[in-house]
Amino acid sequence: MSSDQHLALTEVGTNEVEIMCFYIDIHAGESVYRAYYGINVAKVLKITRLPEQVMRPPLTTHDSVYGAFHFKDRDTVVPVVALARYLEQPQIESDTQKLIITEFNQVMTAFLVSGITRIYRLSWADVEKPDKYINEYSHNAFTGLVNLEGHIVFILDLEKVVIELNPDSGKDFFGVANAIKADRSIHVLHVDDQAIVRRMVKRALEQDESFTVESADSGQEALAMLQGKLAEAKEKGCAVTDLVNVVVSDVEMPVMDGYTLCRSIKDNPELARLPVYLFSSLITEETLHKGQSVKADGQFPKPQTEVMAREILADLARKCIESPAAGAV
């Protein structure tokens, strides 16, 4: 694949994703071990060789920060992360190393790897969630794993990596309490496979005592929870929207992604009135049509929690004015 090759897009709501597979060659005694990893193609800006001129500051906040370089395509300086160092692996240096330049959460970061294999189109249903053991030894660095052509490929949680290396990149998750004051109780079901994001969003929204946040780590789990809420609502003789007011979902998740979750909710007559907001690093002006195609009520790029909270409150207020009886199932 050339660095200028167009990266194809999957259809929305089909629970498909395109994963770019790459590898890191590491020392394993006297032999070489090739470890395979993957990232969502939608986060990749460009693949290039390691530039000759990489600025290496004498002091960095983390050992895995390799340096920085001038990215001419955007006329900006981009930090370089030595991914093997972050994963505590002894990478073999070579002249063929590659840089994967990414953009998400409104931040550009380049990751140094040994090489690229190819792009795979697969279903999120085929991606397994890491078990407790994998999470512990990897420091929660992986969002999923999948078997591709006989290789176990670990899908990296790049957002967690960037937030850990640059805590300021997550500061916009906070600050809701002083800016938002709701005049009603709002129960939010937040869906995200990343534990660090679930904690940050819960902490941010619940700074306003009007917000109560319940969490799920996949679209499948969220859908099961909503089915439980439906049963509870019928038993109590109330609307499901009396038990949960809003669903806020990430897009990129193992098992079931956010687009598929949103479509499943909107296609269910008993859940269709439930507002669904997508909150993801993949959301840009160019991708808004994807959420619109699955009838999302709103879309917000991470990490703008305050903006999302304001819009949710305004949207709920509009819905109450337009349809005072909207709570009825």
UniProtKB/TrEMBL annotation:
Q: List UniProt keywords, sorted A-Z.
A: Phosphoprotein
Signal peptide residues on this chain, from the entry's feature table: none
InterPro entries recorded:
Chemotax_regulator_CheV, CheW-like_dom_sf, CheW-lke_dom, CheY-like_superfamily, Sig_transdc_resp-reg_receiver
Q: Where is the Response regulatory domain?
A: 187-317
CheW-like domain: residues covered: 16-167
Q: Which SMART domains match?
A: CheW, REC
Which residues are reported to carry the modification 4-aspartylphosphate? Answer: D250
PANTHER family given in the database record:
CHEMOTAXIS PROTEIN CHEV
- Protein name from the UniProt record: Response regulator receiver modulated CheW protein
Q: Which organism is it from?
A: Solidesulfovibrio fructosivorans JJ]
Species classification: Bacteria, Pseudomonadati, Thermodesulfobacteriota, Desulfovibrionia, Desulfovibrionales
